[in-house]
Write a structure and sequence with these properties.
about 210 residues; mainly alpha
């Protein structure tokens, strides 16, 4: 058995393994980003829904960026499958070969072909991940700014509403007019009369004619 062939074959297998790890890591990262967006976006839209019209218009830009970021991450997850060397269908052929070097050479050739094909797949996957993460970061920053303005606006509106209600209540109290007191006209039938005497029972002197 040629040691050089064996060593080169082992090196190629290690490189295929490294490519597979990088492929898996990018898939995992894209999945984590999508899970975070699945939590953040509904909360963001709920808060923005109760904001003023200007913030709602700006939120359209962030939603557009979110959509582009999500599409990029989905393309990362939907990347082509990697090649990992010789197919198991070749094992029957390997058994019938007498020279081990021939088997190693076939394996080495399969690994080299896999490495070249995987490079193109990983380049596309890395491209979509980089673009996606940039879009997500920018959209999250803009969304955070809009959320801050939205919360501040909601607080200001609440304070203005409270002050307006207080002023309205104060003006209403000030504008209350006290009812005018009037002396009613009393009928003669309820009047008390004195017939010829004062309160002491003495006769009131009458004037002489």
């Amino acid at each position: 058995m040629n040691e050089k062939i064996k060593h080169t074959t082992e090196m190629s297998k290690e490189l295929v393994h490294v490519q597979l790890e990088n492929y898996t890591k990018l898939n995992n990262k894209a999945g984590v980003v999508l899970n975070m967006l699945a939590i953040f976006i509904p909360i963001y839209l709920f808060v923005i829904e109760h904001s003023n019209q200007a913030i709602k218009y700006w939120s359209i830009c962030t939603v557009f960026l979110f959509v582009l970021g999500i599409i990029s991450m989905l393309l990362v997850l939907n990347s082509s499958e990697l090649h990992i060397g010789v197919n198991e269908d070749m094992y029957d052929e390997f058994i019938n070969k007498e020279n081990l070097d021939d088997i190693l050479l076939i394996e080495l050739g399969a690994n080299i072909t896999s490495i070249k094909a995987n490079d193109d797949i990983l380049k596309k996957q890395s491209f979509w991940y980089r673009n996606g993460i940039i879009l997500v970061i920018v959209s999250v920053i803009v969304a955070t700014i809009l959320l801050t303005f939205s919360i501040f606006y909601a607080k200001e509106s609440k304070d203005d509403k409270t002050m307006s209600e207080k002023d309205k209540s104060k003006n209403t109290k000030t504008a209350v007019i006290q009812p005018k007191v009037t002396i009613p006209t009393v009928s003669k039938s309820v009047l008390k009369t004195i017939h010829g005497s004062d309160t002491t029972g003495k006769d009131i002197p009458k004037k002489s004619k």
